[in-house]
Automatic annotation (TrEMBL):
It comes from Bythopirellula polymerisocia. The keyword Hydrolase applies. This is Alpha/beta hydrolase family protein. The keyword Hydrolase applies. InterPro entries: AB_hydrolase_fold. GO terms for molecular function: hydrolase activity. Keywords: Hydrolase. It comes from the Bacteria.
Length: 676
């Protein structure tokens, strides 16, 4: 235990620890709770404004009688004297009556009232028969929106309780005056009805694990759609984690013409993906949807498959265990017209470490419009160059699955964001190895190596590689480009004691040495078995990576952390830095931009300044894109290993992704961030 605590000093900067992302509320969140007294003994009851309207028509005593009769009288008054105040009162009274019926365990009756409340609030907001426009400055206008949302949610809860809230089904609701057939329709190009296992309600949950909660106000009911695996899945769907949740907003579109005739009608419950459609067209108005992007994300993160502590610790101490789940992950649908941003975690960590940044970046409409976010999970106990080789292979495999014919140019604008050791893994995707990396192992040509074919190929993939032609930018955050002083004799010894080296790796090493006596250098990195060893300042591959030939089409950005030198970190490091990586080690000479933020190693990638800087870079990248074609010229690269490699296509131009007005819009967003 003491050894593990000491080792944690080394990797404290990378590990995240949040087990509780969401918690169930004792009662669902409802903006009408206070104004309508929903939780009081005397409630639910209408507002004083509605009671005043009833007094004006001498109907206030009817509140204690049959609510159906009261609503029918108001409907008769409304038919003779149409005005928004009357129809609002109908909506409010119907909703309060629905709440009372639900409290009295009469769900069928409650459903009727909720249906009436949705209809009347919809009329208040959109019916063109009213001579005067609605007053957006009147609190009643927002309450009408809240009534629509709350009544629709109340109705959906009753339907959901019968397991009937499913796309492709039709529901029947009887209101006081109408029969209504409601078709449930999923309005999404990315998700399909068979993808959805069930829905949960955002208002049932409170988010704990995310610093910021992104909830946009409008119309509709924000839902959590829990995905299920099913037969006939597209190959790209293998990149979704188990029990993935995604945001949906339910909006009921009412036939106002039928409603005005008091006729039976057919309505459509539209289930929108707010990531791609944040607004809906109603009565020639572009209406914002009520959306919540953070709660479904937190719901996903609360699932056992994404237990950060388990993944991080297994990845460090038992790398073989994580190999079973290693690879690329998506938390939203693959979209061929959006630029991938691939986030790569660091030592003793997992993709969960990126959720703060992901949550903030995804809240930006321009970033949502142009980017999709991917995450890479890998075992962090092994030397970083092995992880880089595996990531190289995983990226190639994914491209072959999702775009075998190379038809999606947005994928050729990929951006990597790496924290800590993940920055080294990312940078290794963009350099030409030449013979330099192999030279750290041996002075002899690779062709003279004696080894089994599988082992030989594995070595070739690790030490001989081309830059990935699809990657355009790498953002490194808190990355030890020159190693970390935390990787000293003590921590390396602890690492060797605690980290279980993959058996296959150790067997391969022994075979190579036995079959090739005198072939390898005395200080060859074959003796480096753990990630901690690979990160020491004297690690032979670090200076090679620093001076390696970088792709001409790749740009680099760098973010470093700095805190006062104190506490345990000051025992192991000298000089200014984030407590794990010094500024001297974190600097990157060829970076297009380089900033220092006041954060330690564990928080540098989650610090608001870092997130703003990544946002600025992403917006600037989109603003710079003008034209793009695949290059016909083949870059000539050396291949000392003799193992066949795919030719590298060097891009000659950049991509026309934006119309002029979009270019200006994105450029303004980038400039706004820069000016802060």
């Amino acid at each position: 235990m003491v050894a593990l605590l000491l080792l944690s000093c080394l990797v404290v900067g990378c590990a995240t620890s949040t087990n509780k992302w969401v918690a169930l509320r004792s009662t669902p969140r409802n903006p009408l709770t206070e104004s309508l007294g929903l939780l009081t003994k005397q409630g639910p009851k209408p507002t004083e404004r509605t009671i005043q309207l009833l007094r004006r028509y001498n109907l206030h005593e009817s509140l204690e009688g049959d609510r159906r009769e009261l609503l029918a009288k108001l409907d008769e008054i409304e038919s003779r004297n149409p005005n928004r105040e009357n129809v609002y009162a109908q909506a409010e009274l119907a909703y309060v009556s629905g709440k009372r019926s639900e409290r009295g365990k009469h769900p069928k009756q409650a459903l009727e009232y909720y249906g009436a409340a949705v209809l009347h609030s919809y009329r208040y907001l959109f019916d063109e028969q009213y001579a005067t426009a609605s007053n957006p400055y009147d609190p009643e206008f927002r309450r009408a929106c809240d009534l629509y949302n709350a009544a629709l949610e109340g109705a959906l809860r009753i339907v959901q309780a019968k397991d009937s809230l499913r796309p492709g089904t039709t529901q029947h609701i009887r209101t006081a005056n109408h029969d209504c057939q409601i078709e449930v329709r999923l309005e999404s190009n990315d998700w399909h009805a068979e993808d959805i296992d069930h829905f949960e309600f955002v208002t049932d949950y409170e988010v704990h694990g995310l610093r910021n909660h992104y909830h946009n106000f409008g119309l509709g009911v924000p839902l959590i759609a829990v995905r299920r695996k099913h037969e006939g899945e597209d190959p790209r769907e293998e990149y979704y984690p188990a029990d993935l949740s995604f945001p949906v907003t339910a909006f009921l579109r009412v036939d106002l013409a039928a409603a005005s005739r008091n006729a039976d009608q057919t309505a459509v419950l539209e289930l929108f993906d707010p990531l791609n459609q944040p607004t809906v067209l109603v009565a020639n108005q572009n209406v914002p949807l009520e959306t919540d992007l953070s709660t479904p994300l937190a719901h996903t993160l609360s699932q056992p498959a994404l237990d950060d502590n388990r993944l991080s610790t297994l990845g460090l101490l038992k790398p073989d265990k994580v190999k079973q789940v290693q690879g690329l992950y998506m938390l939203e649908p693959f979209q061929d017209d959006k630029i991938p941003v691939l986030m790569v975690h660091g030592l003793w960590s997992s993709p969960v470490t990126w959720m703060e940044m992901f949550n903030d970046l995804r809240s930006d409409p321009q970033i949502r419009k142009h980017y999709q976010f991917w995450f890479y999970l890998y075992p962090t106990g092994q030397p970083f160059w092995y992880s880089a080789a595996q990531m190289r292979e995983d990226l190639a495999s994914m491209r072959q699955k999702v775009d075998p014919e190379g038809r999606y140019p947005a994928l050729d604008q990929t951006i990597l964001v790496g924290h800590s050791m993940g920055g080294l893994v990312s940078k290794l995707q963009t350099v030409d190895s030449g013979n330099d990396f192999w030279a750290t192992l041996s002075e002899h040509p690779f062709s003279e190596l004696e080894a089994d074919e599988e082992l030989r190929e594995g070595l070739a993939q690790t030490f001989f590689f081309d830059p990935n032609p699809s990657i355009r930018r790498v953002i490194t955050i808190g990355t030890p480009h020159r190693g970390s002083e935390f990787a000293n004799d003590t921590t390396k010894w602890l690492g060797r004691k605690l980290i279980r080296i993959p058996t296959k790796l150790m067997q391969g090493k022994h075979q190579l040495i036995a079959r090739n006596p005198g072939f390898f250098r005395k200080d060859a990195p074959l003796d480096i078995n753990t990630s901690i060893d690979s990160l020491e300042p004297n690690s032979p591959l670090l200076p090679v990576l620093l001076t390696a030939h970088c792709s001409s089409w790749v740009k680099y950005n760098n973010i470093m952390g700095e805190i006062p030198a104190k506490g345990i970190a000051s025992w192991f490091t000298s000089g200014k830095g984030d407590g794990v990586v010094t500024l001297d080690s974190a600097r990157l000479e060829n970076a297009e931009s380089q900033i220092v933020v006041p954060a330690d190693h564990s928080l540098v990638h989650r610090h608001p300044q870092s997130i703003l800087e990544v946002r600025r870079i992403l917006l600037q990248q989109v603003a710079e894109l003008r034209s793009y074609t695949y290059g016909d010229r083949i870059e000539q690269v050396s291949n000392p290993s003799g193992v066949p490699r795919e030719a590298v296509r060097e891009p000659l131009q950049t991509m026309p992704a934006l119309l002029p007005d979009e270019q200006m819009e994105v450029a303004r967003g980038a400039t706004a961030v820069l000016s802060r």
